Amino acid sequence: MKKLFFAVIISFYGIIVSAQSGFKLKISGEIVQPLELSLSDLSKMPQKEAILKDKEGKTHAYTGVSIQDILTWAKVPSGKDLHGENLSKYLLVKCADGYQVLFSLAELDSSIADKKVIVADMMDGKPLLREKGPLRMIAEGEKKPARSSYQVTELIIGSVKK
């Protein structure tokens, strides 16, 4: 019985890993070259930690890639290039269930704000649960976790049109 239970657990884990191994985070919109980043690509980027309280008030430590690092890799304007019309640009985060959240590029840039926002794949040292991952946007320090969205699939750069 123990062997059967162990085999079922290993098979279930294999299904989750294989389903997520084909996952690609899409970065598109008003950028020079659209990107698709695999979980492996993201794991090779510098990792950051962000803290977030859940709805019950329990604190969790999330690990992932800074959104600023991802946007820099996609050649999205930042730092000294984030002025003039570039200040009207935004990041739209799309999730698998249709949920969407919006950030201005200015609030995500460390030369303008001290906001810590990461695309996390780990919570408290463990991979995100399947129904919450494989990626979650974490916006540390916000009073409500409404923009810390689950199952992130795409990052779209846009700008406000006149």
Automatic annotation (TrEMBL):
Q: Which Pfam families match?
A: Oxidored_molyb
Identify the stretch annotated as signal peptide in this record: none
By its UniProt entry, which Gene3D superfamilies does this protein fall under?
A: Oxidoreductase, molybdopterin-binding domain (3.90.420.10)
Q: Which residues form the Oxidoreductase molybdopterin-binding domain?
A: 59-140
Q: Which organism is it from?
A: Chryseobacterium rhizoplanae
List the protein's name: Oxidoreductase molybdopterin binding domain-containing protein
Question: Where would you find the membrane-spanning parts of this chain?
Answer: none
